[in-house]
Write a structure and sequence with these properties.
By secondary structure, the chain is α/β, with parallel strands linked by helices. The protein has 2 domains: 4-63 and 162-231 and 326-387, FAD/NAD(P)-binding domain (3-Layer(bba) Sandwich), CATH 3.50.50.60; 105-156 and 234-323, D-Amino Acid Oxidase, Chain A, domain 2 (2-Layer Sandwich). The longest helix is centred in the N-terminal third of the chain and has 15 residues, at 75-89. The strands form 4 sheets. Strands 6, 7, 8, 15, 16, 17, 18, 19 and 20 form a 9-stranded mixed sheet that branches. Strands 1-10-3-2-14-22-21 form a 7-stranded mixed sheet, with helices on both faces. The chain has 11 helices and 22 strands. Helix 2 packs parallel to helix 6 (162-175), helix 2 (32-41) packs across helix 9 and helix 3 (75-89) crosses helix 9.
Length: 388
């Protein structure tokens, strides 16, 4: 099958010319989760990647200023983070025109009330080492002398080029003959025979034995359309703002976090820094916008640690990160709906886990041994919610 990108006006006639069972797998949602799953499945199955918006990665993926940090997220997510490192550092030839990562040290600051958090991080983390306050101030000259009583450093961190990563996976999908159907919101999903019909707002109908629900914040909505029991997903807003740290030159600063993860700051576009209050405000799935109060809270928390005068906010935005009820991921077959596969609940780890997560989804759909990632399957199996 020749690779095709289908806009709304072209989708219907293209699909009408296809046989009723032209697809083996329909992936719903062309964010990072769906793109990576589709890319890993396409060499083995006929895959349609169906996306509601006019561009892939419009919502969460397109608004992520991601980093690769081995010590971020729950333990099962960290397994996929670790398994993704080699791919992100050295992707296969032709995947991208330039490197996907650039080195960025990460430091953690502990005010007195967070000393126990720091000790826990040092005891349980991988590659996290104590850092003197003097050394931290040498790395971040704006650090206020009265903010932190202890610190730690994670040397093996990377900024991630989110757009390049997703485009690389979409190229892999296309080169393997997969189809990307844009402006194709799923309006009805029904069982027919041994498979699923996905009726889209464009008028196109996709049919396949397997549906992969990679719809992020809309995961439960897609399930409901298909008559599948919801998992209880909670989309949460995460806010960020860009400021000018002048007179400081922050280009080579590390990423800065407090140990309780109530704020963080990271160099952005050479001469600016991105600040976030690390908020997780439950929201309905939507085209999310930043709240001015959250922007102000993030800047205030940053200023308690860093002596930076903020004259104005140059830009702010928000994205959604989605959590399951136990805050772990949900990758696997639905408990009762045959052929319905969940790939949701990444909770802010979707970019840095993407290579290994896409491989894991493909392995499970294809019935292959997932290797090292198999150790986390009991923790991420969506059937746990049906049991409980």
């Amino acid at each position: 099958m020749r690779s095709t990108v289908l806009p709304d006006s072209a989708t219907r006639p293209m699909v009408q010319r296809m046989a009723p069972h032209d697809f083996d797998v329909i992936v719903i949602g062309a964010g990072m989760a769906g793109s990576t799953a589709a890319a890993h499945l396409a060499p083995h199955k006929r895959v349609a990647l169906v996306e509601a918006e006019e561009a892939p990665g419009y919502h969460t993926t397109g608004r992520s200023a991601a980093m690769w940090m081995l010590n971020y997220g729950p333990p099962e997510a960290r397994v996929l983070v670790g398994l993704s490192r080699d791919f992100l550092v050295a992707p296969p030839p032709g995947f991208a025109e330039h490197p996907l990562v650039s080195h960025r040290t990460v430091i953690y600051l502990a005010p007195e009330e967070q000393r126990a958090k720091l000790e826990e991080m040092l005891a349980e983390g991988t590659g996290v080492e104590p850092l003197t306050i003097e050394a931290a101030r040498g790395m971040v000259p704006a650090l206020r002398p009265d903010y932190a009583v202890a610190a730690a450093v994670e040397e093996d961190g990377f900024d991630l080029d989110v757009a390049a990563i997703q485009q690389g996976f979409l190229r892999q999908l296309r080169s393997a003959g997969g189809i990307l159907a844009l402006r194709s919101r799923a309006g009805e999903i029904t069982r027919r025979g041994a498979g699923w019909d996905v009726h889209t707002a464009s008028g196109a109908v996709f049919h396949a034995p397997t549906v992969v629900n990679a719809s992020g914040a809309w995961g439960d909505e897609v399930a409901a359309i298909a008559g599948v029991r919801k998992l209880g997903l909670t989309p949460c807003r995460r806010t960020a703002a860009i400021i000018d740290p002048s007179p400081y030159n922050a280009q080579h600063w590390p990423m800065i976090n407090d140990c309780a993860h109530t704020w963080y700051a990271r160099p952005e576009a050479r001469t600016r820094i991105m600040v976030s209050p690390a908020d997780e405000t439950p929201m309905d799935p939507q085209d999310i916008q930043p709240d001015e109060l959250d922007v102000a809270i993030g800047i205030d928390r940053m200023q308690q640690a860093l002596d930076i005068e903020v004259r104005r906010v140059e830009r702010s935005w928000a994205g959604l990160r989605t959590f399951t009820p136990d805050r772990s991921m949900a990758f696997g077959w639905d408990a009762t709906a045959e052929g319905f596969f969940w790939c949701v609940g990444q909770g802010g780890n979707g970019i840095q886990t993407s290579p290994a997560a896409g491989q894991l989804v493909a392995d499970l759909v294809l019935g292959r041994d997932p290797g090292e990632a198999g150790a986390i399957l009991p923790l991420i199996d969506p059937k746990r919610f049906a049991r409980g």
